[in-house]
């Protein structure tokens, strides 16, 4: 039968104090309770741990052997308890965040900077992957959370909406004439289209919207990065589908023009994603709450 940890704590205190009475005062229990605990421990281990002398008690040879291990074990446990407390108070720990290139550059960087300044003792580990691969890492426990393009249809993953975004089509100077009015979806589909690759959440969302309107779009150019969509459209290679909030600089400078549709693509979100079945660490909770609070203030 396993020996209760409390007996070892009393044993190490008596060994340090070399006195039952001093140990009882330090532990805030009665001296008879201390004596009873030592007797019980000796009975469990079938060995004598202390001998009495004129000044108090001293360890037997077996007691000295046990003390070496018991003291180290209790110190390790105390350190573990301290670390847990520090983690709960955000004084230590690690936060593993997954994010894609575009969201990292245009959305997440200011939050990372602020969180690091507020909680400098939390070590940040950033992993860069596509949304699909990040979901796999969430489910495997490789990361605490991910900031992803939504929607994500996975019942094992919890999603917290953070930032609302709008998908739009843009063109360079060659397509400026189309920006004067509105375009039907059918007319848009006949233009050279520059889209993200088929595995991206953004591409799937746009394709599904178009299919619901009876139009199946085909890409003339497929790219793997939002910045390339902007640059390819800028030099007139076609019309790119981009996130409006991440394309402001190009639009404001007049390097790109928004081609407005007769029926706008419904807004979607960027969100914090994590595993439903696992509790979030205090650091992860603080990070997500910071994201959501900032977005609410913007609204």
TrEMBL record:
Belongs to the LysR transcriptional regulatory family. Keywords: DNA-binding, Transcription, Transcription regulation. This is LysR family transcriptional regulator. InterPro entries: LysR_HTH_N, LysR_subst-bd, WH-like_DNA-bd_sf, WH_DNA-bd_sf. GO terms for molecular function: DNA-binding transcription factor activity; transcription cis-regulatory region binding. The lineage of its organism: Bacteria, Bacillati, Bacillota, Clostridia, Lachnospirales. Coiled coil: none annotated. Residues 9-60 form the HTH lysR-type domain. Gene3D superfamilies: 3.40.190.290, Winged helix-like DNA-binding domain superfamily/Winged helix DNA-binding domain (1.10.10.10). It comes from the Bacteria. The keyword Transcription applies. Pfam families: HTH_1 (PF00126), LysR_substrate (PF03466).
């Amino acid at each position: 039968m396993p020996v209760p940890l409390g007996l070892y704590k009393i044993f190490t205190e008596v060994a340090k104090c070399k006195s039952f009475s001093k140990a009882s005062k330090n532990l805030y229990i009665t001296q008879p309770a201390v004596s009873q605990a030592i007797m019980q421990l000796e009975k469990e281990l079938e060995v004598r741990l202390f001998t009495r002398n004129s000044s108090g008690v001293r360890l037997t040879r077996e007691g000295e052997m046990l003390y070496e291990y018991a003291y180290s074990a209790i110190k390790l446990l105390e350190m573990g308890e301290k670390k847990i407390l520090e983690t709960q108070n955000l004084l230590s720990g690690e936060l593993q965040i997954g994010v894609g290139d575009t969201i990292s550059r245009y959305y997440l960087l200011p939050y990372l900077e602020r969180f690091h300044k507020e909680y400098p003792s939390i070590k940040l580990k950033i992993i860069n992957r596509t949304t699909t691969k990040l979901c796999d890492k969430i489910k495997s426990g490789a990361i605490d959370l991910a900031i992803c393009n939504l929607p994500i249809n996975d019942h094992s993953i919890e999603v917290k909406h953070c930032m609302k975004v709008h998908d739009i089509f843009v063109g360079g100077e060659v397509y400026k004439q189309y920006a004067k009015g509105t375009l039907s979806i059918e007319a848009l589909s006949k233009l050279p289209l520059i889209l993200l690759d088929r595995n991206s959440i953004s591409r799937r969302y746009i394709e599904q919207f178009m299919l619901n309107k009876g139009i199946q779009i085909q890409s003339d150019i497929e790219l793997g990065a939002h910045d390339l969509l902007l640059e390819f459209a800028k030099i007139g290679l076609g019309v790119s589908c981009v996130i409006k909030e991440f394309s402001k600089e190009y639009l404001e400078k007049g390097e790109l023009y928004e081609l407005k549709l007769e029926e706008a693509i419904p807004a979607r979100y960027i969100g914090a994603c994590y595993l439903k079945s696992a509790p979030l660490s205090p650091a992860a909770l603080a990070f997500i709450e910071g994201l959501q609070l900032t977005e609410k203030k913007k609204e």
